[in-house]
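Sequence design from tokenized structure. All designs in this work follow the same two-part layout: the structure record, then the generated sequence. An example of the structure record is given first.
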């Protein structure tokens, strides 16, 4: 059975990826930072449908916690085939002139350092040069990386741009080790992130401006993620899939 680790897998896009991965036959490790109830609920749903799932608490910005998380995957599954670097944070909408160093540092530690650390541990297990069987990594970026998100969250956009550079470099670095690394850019997706930003009506307000006339769903993003992880994308690495409704 193939195995997958999804960071930030208890809610939104991560939870949708966990459910779909289980439907596709993966044993699923669902990472969460603090909301154990949400992660446990997704895992219980997968197990009720006959799948295999575990939950693991870890702050992805903490190197020791990340190492412990991957050790738990080793213990439970014995190997790792896929990683979805989905864990990330956003803050309330603000202009750069009003951002504190603490806010920017936290954004980069979770969104960038966390993605690096998880990718590092995945490569150590997947790389054929290290005795692994190969594998695939999908980093969740954002269309914000290209748009900059002025007047809202330039810090978040910058963190996702860094994730995209990680994707390009790591893909080239590990291609001959049997690892594919790609990124997916969601656009306006109907998740809790908008309430966290302090703009709970953002989806309703902005949805009609999307060429397709609506926001996307976490399940539509998950479809793209699972395709990038699949053998159908066997010759795809170092690239980006936009799931944005045309924007």
């Amino acid at each position: 059975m193939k195995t997958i680790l999804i960071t930030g897998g208890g809610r939104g896009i991560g939870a949708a990826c966990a459910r779909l991965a289980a439907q596709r036959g993966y044993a699923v490790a669902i990472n969460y930072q603090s909301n154990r109830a949400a992660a446990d609920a997704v895992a219980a749903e997968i197990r009720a449908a006959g799948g295999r799932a575990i939950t693991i608490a870890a702050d992805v910005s903490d190197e020791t916690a990340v190492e412990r998380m991957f050790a738990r995957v080793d213990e439970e599954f014995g190997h790792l085939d896929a990683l979805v670097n989905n864990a990330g944070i956003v803050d309330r909408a603000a202009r750069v002139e009003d951002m504190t160093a603490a806010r920017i540092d936290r954004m980069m530690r979770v969104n960038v350092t966390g993605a690096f650390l998880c990718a590092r541990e995945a490569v150590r297990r997947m790389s054929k040069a290290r005795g692994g069987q190969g594998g695939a990594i999908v980093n969740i970026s954002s269309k914000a990386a290209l748009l900059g998100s002025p007047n809202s969250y330039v810090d978040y956009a910058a963190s996702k741009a860094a994730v995209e550079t990680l994707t390009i470099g790591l893909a080239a670095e590990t291609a001959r080790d049997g690892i594919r690394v790609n990124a997916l850019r969601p656009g306006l997706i109907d998740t809790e992130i908008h309430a966290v930003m302090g703009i709970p009506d953002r989806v309703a307000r902005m949805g009609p401006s999307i060429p397709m006339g609506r926001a996307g769903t976490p399940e539509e993003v998950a479809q793209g993620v699972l395709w990038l992880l699949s053998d159908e994308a066997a010759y795809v690495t170092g690239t980006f899939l936009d799931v944005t409704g045309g924007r």
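The mean pLDDT is 96. We note this feature because it recurs in several other targets discussed in the main text.
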